[in-house]
Amino acid sequence: MGLRFPKVYENIKSTSVFHNERGESMVKDVVCGMEIDPKTAAGKSEYKGQTYYFCSPGCKRSFDKEPEKYTEQAQGHGNHH
Ligand SMILES: [Zn+2]
Predict the structure, then answer these.
(1) How far is the CA of 37 from the centre of ligand 1 (A)?
(2) Mean pLDDT of the chain
(3) Cα-to-centroid distance, 13 and ligand 1 (Å)
(4) What distance in Å separates the CA atoms of residue 75 and residue 71, rounded to the nearest whole number?
(5) CA–CA dist 55, 33 (Å, integer)
(6) pTM more than 0.90
(7) Residues 6+ apart with CB under 8 A from 14
């Protein structure tokens, strides 16, 4: 009777976590919704004391133009589809 220990240690990919394998935090590009590493972000902006990171200069530009659009919480003032 041999107890089997199957090797279950495979490459586990975490796709929806905000930390990478070294425990570093990932942040969300609020413009396009992509998760990025702050250290490799293409741009960042500060708005109301909060720092936002972006995957590309284009996302940063969009944010800088209308930061409220991307930072406001869902206030339920009409839907915009
Ligand atoms: Zn982006």
Answers:
(1) 12
(2) 79
(3) 22
(4) 11
(5) 9
(6) no
(7) 20, 21
